[in-house]
């Protein structure tokens, strides 16, 4: 069996696991307990992890806040601006039509509450144009929220250009970096943003922990407020006992990303080339969704003409884990909103699958699994 759904979740790196087991075995105590050494020990583990995250992103440790994942981080970054919106009279938000649901649904809720939200469509290759985003910004704009890399197509969005311009204009900018963190290591360091979100499980860390960055260096601290009530953990931004082992695993994953990302990228690129070769030699009619010049190395979204992605996934379920990015949580099938926003016709969307891979994969295993998948597709064609 081969797992090719890394954009959904990655396996935990063995060294991350060891680090977490060590915490579970040897370090008890609430990191916010100040009355004994146990608490101080776990606190120092949390602070080391904060530093590891900060080093990966090129930010200060005190700009890093741990959460339960990117969904929560995105929610805090956006919903946490409610009070500021009320005080400043700013009620307009700009985003893209291809954001993850964690951002889209949050903004749709704000829209119901009276906020004006512009959802910018990408071009046919799955990239939004910076000017399309920037042209919507007015003095009433509260925040602009754009993802760094799209989870379905792997397309890198022009957050560099957008961030540069917004910082000049003093407009708050939030970046959902869930699919780029640990992959576009240098690029992230050079971005200009006020808030940034990601989940550890997309970069070989554990599920259930994520990060929200609130930048203060060269910006005023964004006026983000907690969206839950409780204790003063994470300086009040995210109340609730800190899951020390998860946080330690998140930090370790970030540390590994710093030291290993270059070799990860090279391998991921090689795999993509080979996958495209297999497609080319298969005799099937296919086309790749998105423009590969702007795509992360570990993602391939491909339409195999005449082959239903649903049927292909069902037929290959036992030996291959892929995805088609559709809302399969509901009973009724709905075609990918990301590919729809790119203007791709429904029949092509229904034949599109996403293959994603990353650090630690066995190249031969991936290629053999993909060959087997293509053989199934050929039988269905
Ligand atoms: N944002 C993007 C771009 C994602 O790909 C995901 C997960 O797929 C999320 C946010 C949400 O992450 P989580 O489910 O870990 O909260």
TrEMBL record:
Q: Name one GO molecular function term.
A: iron-sulfur cluster binding
Keywords in alphabetical order, please. Aminotransferase, Iron, Iron-sulfur, Metal-binding, Pyridoxal phosphate, Transferase
Q: Which reaction does it catalyse?
A: (sulfur carrier)-H + L-cysteine = (sulfur carrier)-SH + L-alanine
Where in this chain does the record put each Aminotransferase class V domain?
2-366
User: Gene3D superfamilies, alphabetically?
Assistant: Aspartate Aminotransferase, domain 1, Type I PLP-dependent aspartate aminotransferase-like (Major domain)
| Superkingdom classification of source | Bacteria
Cofactor(s) listed = pyridoxal 5'-phosphate
Is S-adenosyl-L-methionine set as a keyword in this record? no
* SUPFAM superfamilies found in the cross-reference section: PLP-dependent transferases
Q: Which family, according to UniProt? A: Belongs to the class-V pyridoxal-phosphate-dependent aminotransferase family. NifS/IscS subfamily.
| Record protein name field | Aminotransferase class V-fold PLP-dependent enzyme
């Amino acid at each position: 069996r081969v797992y090719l759904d890394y954009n959904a979740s990655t396996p935990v790196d063995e060294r991350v696991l060891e680090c977490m087991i060590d915490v579970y075995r040897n370090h008890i105590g609430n990191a916010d307990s100040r009355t004994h050494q146990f608490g101080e020990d776990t606190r120092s583990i949390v602070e080391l992890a904060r530093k590891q995250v900060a080093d990966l992103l090129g930010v200060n440790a005190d700009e890093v806040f741990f959460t339960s994942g990117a969904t929560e981080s995105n929610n805090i970054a956006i919903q946490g601006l409610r009070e500021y919106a009320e005080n400043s009279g700013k009620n307009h938000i700009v985003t893209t039509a291809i954001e993850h649901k964690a951002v889209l649904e949050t903004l749709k809720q704000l829209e119901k509450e009276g906020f004006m939200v512009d959802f910018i469509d990408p071009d046919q290759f799955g990239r939004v144009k910076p000017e399309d985003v920037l042209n919507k910004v007015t003095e009433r704009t509260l925040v602009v929220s754009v993802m760094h890399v799209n989870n379905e197509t792997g397309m890198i969005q022009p957050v560099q250009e957008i961030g540069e311009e917004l910082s000049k204009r003093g407009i708050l900018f939030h970046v959902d970096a869930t699919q780029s963190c640990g992959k576009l290591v240098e690029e992230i360091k050079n971005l200009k943003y006020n808030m940034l979100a990601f989940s550890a499980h997309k970069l070989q860390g554990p599920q259930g922990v994520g990060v929200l960055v609130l930048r203060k260096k060269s910006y005023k601290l964004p006026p983000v407020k907690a969206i839950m009530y409780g204790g003063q953990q994470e300086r009040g931004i995210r109340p609730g006992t800190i899951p020390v082992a998860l946080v330690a695993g998140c930090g370790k994953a970030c540390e590994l990303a710093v030291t290993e990302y270059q070799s990860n990228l090279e391998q991921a690129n090689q795999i993509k080339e080979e996958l495209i070769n297999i497609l080319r030699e298969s005799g099937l009619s296919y086309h790749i969704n998105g423009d590969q010049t702007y795509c992360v190395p570990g993602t391939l979204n491909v339409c195999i003409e005449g082959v239903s992605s649903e049927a292909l996934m069902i037929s290959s379920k036992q030996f291959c884990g892929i995805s088609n990015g559709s809302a399969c949580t509901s009973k009724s099938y709905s075609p990918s909103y990301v590919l729809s926003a790119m203007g791709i016709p429904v029949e092509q969307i229904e034949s599109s699958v996403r293959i994603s891979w990353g650090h630690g994969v066995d190249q031969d295993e991936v290629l053999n699994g993909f060959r087997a998948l293509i053989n199934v597709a050929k039988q269905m064609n």
